[in-house]
Design brief:
The protein is α+β, with helices and mostly antiparallel strands. The chain has 2 domains: 5-85, no CATH class; 106-332, 2-Layer Sandwich (BirA Bifunctional Protein, domain 2), CATH 3.30.930. It is 38% helix and 19% strand. It has 11 helices and 9 strands. The protein has a 7-stranded mixed β-sheet, with helices on both faces. A two-stranded antiparallel ribbon has the order 2-3. Strand 6 (239-246) and strand 7 (249-258) form a beta hairpin. The longest helix has 32 residues, at 54-85. The protein is elongated and about 125 Å long. The protein binds 2-{3-[(4-chloropyridin-2-yl)amino]phenoxy}-N-methylacetamide.
Length: 335
């Protein structure tokens, strides 16, 4: 037979003296008391001893088993108390790790600011489908059948009769079908055009507005848009209403502001004109009112539209629209 119980005990205590961490104490416990451990093997081999030695050896081995169990447990407890008293305490003076806070995308922020300015002036926010029927996107808005905007080049066709909306005007047509004047709504949302360069992306955001009532004049349109521009950009920036054309308004105008970069002197941003185009607008064309069943003798109205990316680019002096869609955090977190 191998080592005596006394030798095993000496070995075990010597090893325990040098064990300095919980891992090695657990290993020792397995080495001596585990299923294939030294003490366990000893007890198993007792039957091989001469009969008269068996009771004494069995008793001693069982005692050693109890002694070692207690010794290992004590050693573990001692290490834990030491650790708690020294190394592993929490250092309450360490600076904490701050959780980074999320923020809205700049386009969402600007779109929200635009909506806020108009809701303060009594406009309701309305939404509608991004996949639209030809009637709501073009026909009802007085686009002739052969108008270039209907072309494959500008419009994403889903089928002959179904398109991705190219503006948010169809939302307002749907509102006019449902409500009788007075109507005062703004329609923000995503729009789609087959176009891609420095200032165009295939999807962009638009806010359109519509006001219909008795005796609505072009002067009312100028007042509302002047207030909007002053709140959006700068309380005393100059505006300019320039004659233009849209199928759905008559008369139509494009609205410019004095260049925010050079204040009218002429620079690269305003292509040396001194002015920046921010909006399109006009008095709703009678044909549009007829298409939704409004009495053109009783009601007049104005409408306007703007690109949210364009407003954001002018406000922040950004020259490439694609920056809004690249999701580069270093760009986005500046706003
Ligand atoms: C632009 C120009 C405009 C409208 C949008 C409109 C809507 C209805 C009836 C008549 Cl339901 N007009 N919308 C009117 C004039 C201009 O947008 O430059 N948008 C980015």
């Amino acid at each position: 037979m191998g080592k005596s119980i006394e030798q095993i005990k000496d070995d075990a205590f010597k090893s325990l003296e040098t064990a300095s961490d919980p891992e090695s104490i657990k290993e020792l416990s397995i080495r001596y008391l585990g299923r294939k451990g030294v003490v366990t093997q000893f007890l198993r081999n007792i039957s091989a001893l001469p009969p008269e030695e068996r009771p004494g050896a069995g008793k001693k081995a069982n005692e050693l088993k109890k002694i070692l169990e207690a010794a290992f447990e004590q050693a573990l407890e001692r290490l834990e108390t030491e650790a708690a008293a020294t190394g592993d305490r929490i250092d309450v003076s360490l600076p904490g790790r701050t959780a980074s806070q999320g923020f809205l995308h700049p386009i969402t922020q600007i779109s929200g600011q635009i909506s806020d300015i108009f809701t303060q002036m009594g406009f309701d926010i309305v939404e509608g489908p991004e996949v639209e029927q030809d009637f709501y996107n073009f026909e009802s808005l007085n686009f002739p059948k052969d108008h270039p905007a209907r072309d494959m080049q500008d419009t994403f066709f889903v089928s002959d009769n179904i398109v991705l909306r190219t503006h948010t005007s169809p939302i307002q047509v749907r509102v006019m079908e449902k409500r009788t004047p007075p109507v005062r709504v703004i329609a923000p949302g995503k729009v789609y055009r087959c176009d891609s360069d420095l200032t165009h992306t295939p999807m962009f955001h638009q806010v359109e507005g519509l006001l219909v009532d008795k005796n609505v004049s072009f002067g009312d349109l100028k007042g509302i848009l002047t207030t909007f521009v002053h709140r959006m950009f700068d309380e005393d920036i100059s505006l300019r209403f320039r004659p233009s054309f849209f199928p759905f308004t008559e008369p139509s105008a494009e609205v410019d502001i004095l260049c925010v970069m050079c204040r009218g002197k002429g620079c690269r941003v305003c292509s040396h004109t001194g002015w920046l185009e921010v909006l399109g607008a006009g008095m709703v064309h009678p044909a549009v009112f007829e298409n939704v069943g409004y009495d053109t003798d009783r009601y007049t109205g104005f409408a306007f539209g703007m690109g949210v990316e364009r407003i954001a680019m002018l406000k922040y002096g950004i020259d490439d629209i694609r920056k809004f869609f690249e999701n580069d955090f270093r760009f986005l977190r500046q706003f």
